Amino acid sequence: MNNQSLTVIEPPRGWQSIGIRELWNFRELLRALLLRDVKIRYKQTILGIAWAGLQPLVGMVVFTIALNGAAGIPSEAGVPYPIFCYSGLLIWLYFAEALNRASRSLVTNNLLVTKVYFPRLIAPLSGVIAPVLDFTIAFVILLGLMVAYGVGFSWTVLLAPLILIGAILCATAFGVWLAALNVEYRDIGYAVPLLVQLWLFLTPVVYPASSAHGVLRIIFALNPMAGVVTVFRWAVLGRGAIDWSIQIPSLAVLVVVLVAGILYFRRVETSFADSI
Amino acid sequence: MPIRSEQGGDIAVSVEGLSKRYVLGEREPYKTLRSSLMSVPNRLLRQSSSVSPVGGRAELWALRDLSFQLRQGEVLGIVGHNGAGKSTLLKILSRVTSPTNGRVVLRGRASALLEVGTGFHPELTGRENVYLNGSVLGMRQSEIARKFDEIVDFAGVSRFIDTPIKRYSSGMQVRLAFAVAAFLEPEILIVDEVLAVGDAAFQRKCLGKLKSSSVQGRTVLFVSHNLPAVRSLCTRAILLDHGQLVMDASPAATIEHYLSEKIGSSDSWDLRTSRRSDLELGGKARFRSLKLAGVSRAGSIPVGDTLSLQIEFEVLESVEDMVAVLNILTVDDVLVAQSVTTNSYSPVTRLDPGLYSLVARIESALLQPGRYEVGLGLRSGSMLQDQIDAAGMVEFIESVDLEFPWFGGAGGYLRLPVQWTRPEILHDLRV
User: Of A30, A173, B190, B228, which residue is the least packed, with the fewest Cβ within 10 Å?
Assistant: First the structure.
């Protein structure tokens, strides 16, 4: 009876560490939840997985006609506007979907939360990881589009996965806050789609960062997704330069929001089952 | 803390001073410091009433200073009324929710089964759900793969294992869900009322499986309203009432205590203060008392004798179309029989304020020996005026001393007036 597991259950005691080891112990649950989400994602649809590519493609067409064509919004560094737009939408749509899923993760899994124990961070984590599949499909389409438009490849495209991790961290940072708050205030569920919509226009997704001045540049600096989108586009298209005046502050904001978010989440997670 | 108890044997579960407070009407406050400060005066002034307003908000102590220990291999039954704290205790033990005070130490790998089929998704196939549900219950993929065939076999759904479970009947879903749970191999198993699902044959199969798991030296905590199951499965039982431990003894003794607390062995009951049904009641008429005639003082009567129930009720405001209802329930709250006064005469068109008496006479109860609860209701038109689910209790006993050569009495609830013939020889096989 010596080397058996010992569990001590006590009242919550304020701030907790992230609990990496426990998350690792529950990796199979995370895997099972991801597998579930991927399997049911396109059940009973006609187009199935094609939806993953359709979303950014339709966005690209609409924004090219409306913004590039009608409003005269330019591209950047000589890249055709459709490619410019698609590459931005690609990483943005990943973020939007990941954030949306993460913020709803505890509420949609409420039967699990109220009936079984697991490190609660598993729920938002599965929310931000599941849309990576859609991203990958849409990314392959981007490579095809680049060939079609004669946009050459640069070695920096190999950095794309690394920048995707940046987007995952970004979705995690805001997702854990929203998920925890959503347990208490269901308003979050209504606010997130609106938030994502407004956020899109405060991020250089469909227009170039270089065209922004004044207040908008300050917003970029405070907006971690502005950093992610611009550096993603730089890597994939291999043109232009990294704008460090956006990258550095937005990365700092990301780190602060992420650490604070996880600490907050860990602190309030003990009451999720009671208040969900 | 001692690892061994005085009686010997290793302590697998140790619960010390466990309390859980819920704030009613409001959500659980987040600020741990504030809630712990607020609980101090409350702990000093611990009262018998479990709902007390503190800081202007009503709070409910679902558990209060609960302590017990469980040796390895013990099977503990947890009984009590609804709201006694049984489920809260299991939720804390399974770490779904955290205690307000106190602590629990579990020695060994623990699995909790608060529900069967947690995480089941209707769009996924039986196979996919087995893996998902197994992971949710803390099984490794390799472990599920190893037991997969047995699980499917136990559930009896092998033909449909690659069909989405939304096409399953509800019975098949439950069988598959329970089968996954049945193959958990924890050292400590925490089970909530999960046996109340499935058909009778499958329930027996599950009880058998649970029984064999206790034989394997597993420590089990088991909440159930199914008192016969508690009696046959458990080695010990505790009774909770308003979040406090009332009794900790053998299953038979605890159940006996629980039943007598619930209603009391008697032949008459004052119903003015009895617990009313949770249903919406008109309150224009109220029961006052129930008295059994033809029974012993302890409320028992031989099967087949005439039982009379003398009911007194009070009409406070005039009521129209009054009907009284008599329910006979098992101690596990299964409704066995129901009778209404309209079986004998039309509703009384009008009753003016006053005290009334009513007698229900059952000429020959066709019930198997055992304890039964008596429930009473008063209805005027479609409005329920008063209802008491456990107004009294009657015990039917064997009229003649039959010696059955098997354990226990006969099964079922009803004693049918069956006439059996003696065996007649059809063909003599002696040479």
Answer: B228
